[in-house]
Amino acid sequence: MSIVDQIQFERYGGLVPAIIQDSETNEVLMLGFMNREAVAKTLDTRLVTFFKRSTQKLWTKGETSGNVLRVVALRINCNDDSLLVLASPAGATCHTGHTSCYYREVTTAQEEWREISSAEFDPDVVYRK
After folding, report:
1. Do the domain assignments include residue 9?
2. For the chain, N or C: smaller number of CB within 10 Å?
3. What is the reported pTM?
4. Is the distance from CB of 128 to CB of 65 less than 8 angstroms?
5. Residue 124 falls within a domain, yes or no?
6. 16 lies in some domain
7. Phi/psi of residue 6, nearest 5 degrees
């Protein structure tokens, strides 16, 4: 049985959540979803590839921005239904220009979200919006 065949895709409608973590800093960079084909492509190319639900297509992170995520290690949880990808990012991960998609946290008063890091690039320039 192949590695990909051991993943329980059917539990979440053919997809598994994949947490992407910086292999050097341990910072959580993003969460995406992978289908069987995305996992196979990720393993083959060593570039993180997701199944983009909005377009129903594979998407290799960084194909537009150049900010790819190179796979260092791929881990699976105890239930075989979610993945942890340790990656080496080439630039900011978030489409907003931030290092991580998790760049906001709730204020002490729990009244609003505040940014805890600055953007590394202007998304309007990178994505030509």
Report:
1. yes
2. N
3. 0.90
4. no
5. no
6. yes
7. -85, -10
